[in-house]
Design goal:
heterodimer, A: 282 residues, alpha/beta, Rossmann fold, five-stranded parallel sheet, two-stranded antiparallel sheet, elongated, B: 454 residues, two-stranded antiparallel ribbon, 19 helices, ATP binding (chain A), CbbQ/NirQ/NorQ/GpvN (chain A), ClpA/B (chain A), ATP hydrolysis activity (chain A), AAA domain-containing protein (chain A)
Amino acid sequence: MWFASRDEVRGRLAAVDYLADDGIATSVFLAGALGKPLLAEGPAGVGKTQLAKAVAEATGARLIRLQCYEGLDEARALYEWNYKKQLLRIQADDGAWDDIFSEEFLLERPLLKAIRSEEPTVLLIDETDKADVEVEGLLLEILSDYQITIPELGTITAARRPYVVLTSNATRELSEALKRRCLYLHLDYPTPERERDILLAQVPGLPASIADQLARTVATLRALELKKSPSIAETVDWAHTLLALGRTELDEALIGETLGVVLKHNSDQVRAAKELGLPSRS
Amino acid sequence: MTTPASLVDRHVGFVHALREAGLPVSPAEGLDAAHALMVIDLAERETLREAYAATLVKRPAHRPGFDLLFDLWFPPVISGTEGTAVAEDAELPELPELRERLAELLMGDPADPAFREFARTMVGRFGQVQAAPGRQSWFSFPVLRALSPETLVARMLNAMLDERGGLPEKVARRHISRTVEAFTEAVASDVRRRIAEESGIEKIARSAVRPPIDQVDFLRATKEELARLRREVYPLARRLATRLSIRQKRGRRGRLDFRRTVRASLSTGGVPLTTHMRPPRPHRPELVVLCDASDSVSTFSHFTLLLTFALREQFTKVRAFAFVDTVDEITDLFAPGADVLDAIARLTEEADIVRFGRTDYGHVFERFAERFPDAVGPRTSLLILGDARSNYQAPALGTLKRLAGQARHAYWLNPEPRAQWDTGDSLATSYGSVVPMHECRNVAQLAAFVETLA
């Protein structure tokens, strides 16, 4: 059992500075209680990866991370045989053909490591959408039955079910089969009220009035039709910037000067300056 | 919902209603939700909502429909129970005081429970209207008219700001419009609840749920949906671009890359266990887009144009032409980094596309062949966007045939439903016999088409 109730999730995540709303707390609780993987999807920088880290920290579990990328394959996700060692063994001992596929020659990769781990483990499969479609097929056995089949060794079943978090930026639609096996959590930009609380938790020493102004300004920016809306991470960076500049009052000139922290496209900056009536920096 | 049996009924009914509204809920997911009900605290409504959402709703586009149905099947309050009955029968203060209270709430946090409570009370007070002799029904319009939150904006701005103008006012306005929207939604939701109580959930559910955004018809989208559609452009382009580049990599197996194979074999004692292939040379088509900019289909063609330009890296060259009854090149308007909304506004002002203002495909094709003879070549994919409604003018099929013959591929995307093709002045079949015509009514169909293109 990972958590006893939704409110416990909220309390323990808050203790590690992760502010969970109703949706997040309920999904995190259910993922633990039902023993199902949690798929967190949403735009970049809204705290998907951070959620997995926070769960690990809050429960004192070990975090095992599998970073997905294009071209990720079985050998890097699951396990690999140590060919060099096998060759050496065969060359040293002609009768060794039978026992080169044993534990000794197995290289553990993140997924196998998480399945075989004896201690509580949070398995983070990060940016699942970046991996090829085949990898999803690979994940299905692990996610539904918590087991891995290695042809030479047989099926390895989880000693202790890991808490699995998958994240996705939705650059492509994940397969129905994968989604069906997961609990789904859509993380979106927070409301200004929640973002203010996040800022206060993440940036110690930030005056509450500035946090409030920042959160509302960022919400206004997100309402514009921009190429890339500012993420929570960028809002936090903005708050750090203002602190570093030693400013305690957020006025238009200051926003205009530091807009580059949150908007990374020139056309977005021009648009924001125009729409909000900021002094332009040509 | 007192005995487990009635909970099961409600659960099954709710899942059924979701399927009816077009959400793909599998039996396994229904079971997951039932398991979830066993471990959560059923008394907390928001937990129940999120538990259902986590197990049943796996696409953000389906969430609004889900929330609406959830509010109907698991209403926050039931009329006639003690708490609400008192609130509705009690002497309510006069209208000016109510508006005062509304202004206060709108300046605060819309997540405040008092906010929804107030909306419910107001529906109880103003929402009932004589629909037909002897029949009462509930509407949100009279509530909003009586309270008219829009006319409170100036007063609220004065209360929130020391001085008007500039960025603070923008921020305050944004907050107010967000809360006014939340209030309107709260009122609408309570009206639906009351109707459902009086005439059954199924009836109201069917008419109230809007289709998810990627199923919204381009030609029938509301203003709000259009804004949301435009926001979809970049995520959609990103999604398509990754899919397209993956396909390119997979398309053909290239030649053996000898160097990399030998290099990799070193770690296995010179035995080439894995072979490496050279990546195939990517095929990148040139794209020429001819788009109908007349009002009847402008939403569709603008959206498609934005998408093709957002997908620029997938094509070596994109050239775009707009027309109503004459044609002009608009590629420059969509230069990299150009502002999307600007481009659309400038399209109608700067480009020379209108003579008399009535769409004339025949003249457009002739003019296009004459003015831009080099636009369509053997490497070009020609894409025509429009409804093929030519106001009974000569179709110039021969010219189009020649253009299509010059191009590597030619496609026609028609935003009208297939059933309406060939009605009235539509020349869908005639043009369709020269250039393959695809029905393209919503984002889902458009995305499916772009995938076949590259």
